[in-house]
């Protein structure tokens, strides 16, 4: 048998072994379809129906006008409160997120040309919600304020005054469709999880069951033992990616694929290779699957949560941002979004591709080297 | 139920855990490391957005305007470019996320008292960042405009600053943040991470522990013994509950000590509530282990039903309020959402049993159902 034939036989063996674990197959299928669908369609990062209560000490036309600016889909009025104690109780219980407090003589002061301040108490125990509520409420209040100003001083017309007008343009996702970002982020998460876990599990299972001894005494080289695990699981992951991209993400959410599809799959393959290399390295460190799973979780969580798939990476502390050079996902994120949404090509992405290839070879080489030392 | 036999099984399981040194280290190490790394790293604050500018005016006023962005901690200035094509290349290479284009005669028009349109380009890939950055731009513009207007009014009509201010902005919104005055995402995040850690680590320990017996075949010893189903499950899971109970204390201490989060409530609420939650999630691990036959499948299934709900469907990263009804329903199927209410309530709001008995009651009910299902699904005479 030639070198390639052996590789092929071993790859087929791995695929067969995988096909005999039905629950694992169901879980993999779930990841690439339903999981991505739920995450993308159900999750939004903008403010929707934030519950709000009002303490209106004025009961005037103006105060009602301001209150009624807090409308769905952003806010939902939960009614009027009678006193501050009740407000505090509802905030404590989490029944409302914010309480607006309109002072007495609100309208009278406005008409007399005095500046009035309206108070808002925001539940900031969840900082994301607190920020969002404040951002939206401030915008609503300042629009109200501007209109009042024009109403009260009719001669102040904006066109004749100096002002910077913001011509805001959002690129790559002009309608700010959350599902585009969420579906791709979830796909990247799934790819990462599976390509880390599956090859590592396949490798350590041989160790745990002792079948590795049979492989070591066969004419197979370490690379021929380890590479098929990456190849077979890589094939599964790539097939799953294709399914979820063409049957789920594009038709269900209307994500436009701006760049080259072959290039996307090429970099995905490269990413799977790099991540699987990391998984194999972990497998050489452990003796049982329990240990593998623990170690995989340990490296997976920072990779998933700190590379920028779910949170803006710029706000992280400097040393963590530096450390992310070691995370294969941070390269892949730029490439995946670049190709799918921005239409970027090799000319722009070559540095990320090179970085990922280097990191992947390093991790894979390290894995083979450790394996050789253990069984050579 | 023979407590003696339960103790024997628990002791045997404990010995097995302790003998696997890497596993033991991980059982205590993963929660701590997860909390530290994610507590420092995961932040939804949008800061230091890398941006570039194209200044076609180069007047004093345009520089003044740009410096409001350059000096802001929300933006990270990456340099000036000479034409729009360069901005486009930087944006699509993800080197910058935001760009400002200042048109020619910017300063001149403003001095003449006329409005000027300034273009801001935002990379919309990450929608949350794009939205928040839009808010920042609006705030900076509003501030700049107010100053322009005040100067203008003072020059043209001789209005005093204070008089002008009232004219320009008659209504002000004063925001007071409760429970987390400086709106530190680190406080919310670190205490919230207690939930994430306790959601996924007990099920992993449990599922791997039980499936290991199945995969190795040592479970046949149990099948053949006089131990009853309930005794086996209780004894088997006790050590994992104990490990997690220790972690509950360690995590509490770290969140206060390392992240400086306030603990406004009482331990007499936090500890029992956390224990109920740990019993819940340990039960989830038991269910997983009864469904699968291999450890790899156990690990992946555990991720599906613990890690992902804890991250996305608990309210930790994504507000529950912003979900659509189906996702909100899914969120309520997992215990994470109830425990997160309890943790944030006891840490940041200082609530106790009176304010938070509902989520805890939900957790107790949840635990009872899960353990009952586990007991029903476990058979000493397996079908295959």
Which features characterize this protein?
heterodimer; A: 376 residues; alpha/beta; abc type-2 transporter like fold; 2 domains; 14 helices; 67% helix; B: 384 residues; 4-stranded mixed β-sheet; 15 helices; elongated
Question: What does it look like?
Answer:
The complex is a heterodimer of chains A (376) and B (384). Chain A is α/β, with parallel strands linked by helices and 376 residues long. Chain A folds into two domains: 3-43 and 175-375, no CATH class; 50-160, 3-Layer(aba) Sandwich (abc type-2 transporter like fold), CATH 3.40.1710.10. Chain A has 14 helices and five strands. In chain A, helix 3 links the parallel strand 1 (50-56) and strand 2. Chain A is elongated and about 95 Å long. Chain B has two domains: 3-43 and 181-377, no CATH class; 49-168, 3-Layer(aba) Sandwich (abc type-2 transporter like fold), CATH 3.40.1710. Chain B has helices at 3-19, 21-41, 60-70, 84-92, 106-111, 127-157, 161-168, 185-216, 219-224, 229-257, 267-291, 295-312, 325-332, 336-349, 353-377, and strands at 49-55, 75-80, 98-102, 116-123, 171-178. Chain B has a four-stranded mixed sheet with strand order 2-1-3-4, with helices on both faces. In chain B, helix 3 (60-70) links the parallel strand 1 and strand 2 (75-80). The model of chain B has no long low-confidence stretch (mean pLDDT 86). The chains are: A alpha/beta (376), B alpha/beta (384). Chains A and B meet through helix 2, strand 4, helix 6, strand 5 and helix 7 of A and helix 2, helix 4, helix 5, strand 4 and helix 6 of B.
How are the SSEs ordered, and which strands pair?
The complex is a heterodimer of chains A (376) and B (384).
Chain A: H1 3-19, H2 22-42, E1 50-56, H3 61-67, E2 75-80, H4 84-92, E3 98-102, H5 106-111, E4 116-123, H6 127-152, E5 164-171, H7 178-209, H8 211-217, H9 222-253, H10 261-285, H11 289-306, H12 318-323, H13 328-342, H14 346-375
Parallel strand pairs in A: 1-2, 1-3
Antiparallel strand pairs in A: 3-4
Helix pairs in contact in A: 1-9, 2-7, 2-9, 7-9, 7-10, 7-11, 7-13, 9-10, 10-11, 10-13, 10-14, 13-14
Chain B: H1 3-19, H2 21-41, E1 49-55, H3 60-70, E2 75-80, H4 84-92, E3 98-102, H5 106-111, E4 116-123, H6 127-157, H7 161-168, E5 171-178, H8 185-216, H9 219-224, H10 229-257, H11 267-291, H12 295-312, H13 325-332, H14 336-349, H15 353-377
Parallel strand pairs in B: 1-2, 1-3
Antiparallel strand pairs in B: 3-4
Helix pairs in contact in B: 1-10, 2-8, 2-10, 6-7, 8-10, 8-11, 8-12, 8-14, 10-11, 11-12, 11-14, 11-15, 14-15
């Amino acid at each position: 048998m030639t070198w390639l034939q052996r590789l092929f036989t071993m790859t087929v063996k791995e695929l067969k072994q995988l096909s005999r674990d039905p629950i694992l197959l169901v879980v993999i299928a779930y990841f690439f379809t339903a999981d991505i669908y739920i995450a993308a369609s159900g999750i939004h990062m903008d403010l929707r129906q934030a519950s709000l209560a009002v303490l209106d000490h004025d009961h005037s036309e103006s105060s009602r006008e301001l209150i009624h600016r807090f409308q769905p889909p952003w806010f939902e009025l939960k009614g009027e409160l009678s006193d501050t104690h009740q407000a505090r109780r509802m905030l404590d219980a989490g029944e409302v997120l914010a309480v607006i407090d309109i002072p007495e003589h609100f309208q009278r002061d406005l008409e007399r040309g005095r500046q009035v301040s309206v108070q808002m108490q925001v539940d900031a125990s969840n900082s994301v919600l607190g920020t969002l509520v404040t951002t939206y409420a401030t915008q609503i209040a300042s629009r109200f304020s501007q209109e009042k100003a024009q109403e009260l001083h009719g001669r102040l017309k904006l066109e004749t005054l100096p002002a910077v007008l913001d011509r805001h343009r959002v690129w790559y996702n002009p309608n700010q469709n959350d599902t585009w970002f969420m579906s791709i982020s979830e796909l990247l998460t799934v790819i990462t999880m599976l390509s880390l876990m599956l090859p590592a599990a396949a490798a350590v299972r041989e160790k745990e069951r002792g079948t590795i001894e049979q492989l070591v005494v066969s004419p197979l080289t370490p690379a021929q033992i380890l590479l098929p695990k990456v190849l077979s699981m890589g094939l599964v992951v790539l097939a799953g990616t294709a399914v979820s991209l063409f049957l789920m993400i594009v038709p269900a959410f209307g994500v436009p694929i701006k760049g080259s599809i072959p290039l996307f799959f090429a970099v995905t393959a490269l990413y799977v290779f790099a991540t699987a290399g990391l998984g194999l390295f972990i497998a050489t460190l452990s003796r049982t699957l329990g240990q593998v799973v623990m170690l995989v979780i340990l490296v997976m969580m920072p990779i998933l949560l700190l590379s920028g798939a779910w949170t803006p990476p710029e706000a992280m502390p400097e040393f963590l941002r530096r450390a992310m050079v070691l995370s294969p996902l941070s390269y892949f994120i730029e490439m995946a979004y670049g190709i799918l949404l921005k239409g970027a090509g090799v000319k722009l992405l070559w540095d990320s591709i090179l970085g990922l290839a280097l990191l992947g070879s390093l991790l894979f080489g390290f894995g083979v080297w450790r394996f050789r030392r253990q069984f050579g | 139920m023979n407590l003696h036999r339960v103790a024997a099984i628990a002791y045997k399981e404990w010995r097995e855990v302790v003998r696997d040194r890497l596993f033991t280290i991980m059982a205590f190490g993963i929660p701590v490391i997860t909390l530290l790394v994610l507590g420092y790293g995961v932040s939804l604050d949008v800061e230091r957005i890398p941006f570039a500018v194209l200044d076609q005016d180069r007047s004093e006023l345009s520089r003044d305007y740009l410096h409001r962005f350059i000096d802001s901690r929300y933006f990270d200035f990456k340099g000036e470019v000479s034409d729009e094509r360069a901005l486009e290349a930087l944006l699509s290479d993800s080197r910058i996320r935001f760009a400002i284009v200042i048109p020619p005669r910017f300063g001149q028009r403003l001095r003449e008292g006329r409005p000027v349109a300034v273009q801001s380009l935002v990379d919309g890939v990450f929608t949350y960042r794009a939205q928040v950055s839009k808010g920042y731009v609006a705030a900076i513009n509003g501030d700049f405009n107010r100053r322009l207007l005040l100067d203008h009014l003072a020059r043209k009509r001789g209005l005093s600053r204070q008089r002008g201010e009232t004219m320009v902005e008659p209504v002000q919104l004063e925001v007071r943040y409760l429970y987390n005055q400086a709106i530190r995402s680190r406080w919310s995040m670190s205490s919230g991470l207690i939930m994430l850690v306790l959601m996924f680590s007990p099920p992993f320990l449990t599922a791997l522990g039980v499936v290991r017996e199945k995969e190795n075949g040592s479970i046949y010893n149990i099948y053949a013994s006089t131990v009853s189903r309930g005794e086996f499950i209780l004894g088997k899971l006790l050590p994992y509950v104990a490990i997690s109970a220790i972690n509950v204390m360690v995590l509490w201490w770290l969140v206060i000590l390392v992240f400086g989060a306030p603990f406004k409530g009482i331990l007499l609420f936090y500890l029992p509530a956390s224990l109920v939650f740990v019993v819940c999630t340990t039960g989830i691990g038991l269910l997983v282990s009864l469904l699968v036959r291999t450890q790899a499948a156990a690990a992946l299934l555990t991720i599906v039903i613990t890690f992902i709900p804890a991250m996305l469907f608990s309210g930790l990263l994504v507000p529950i309020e912003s979900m659509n009804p189906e996702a909100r329903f899914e969120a309520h199927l997992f215990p994470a959402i109830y425990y997160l209410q309890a943790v944030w309530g006891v840490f940041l709001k200082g609530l106790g049993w009176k304010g938070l008995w509902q989520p805890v009651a939900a957790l107790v009910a949840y635990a009872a159902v899960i353990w009952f299902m586990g007991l029903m699904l476990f058979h000493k005479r397996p079908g295959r």
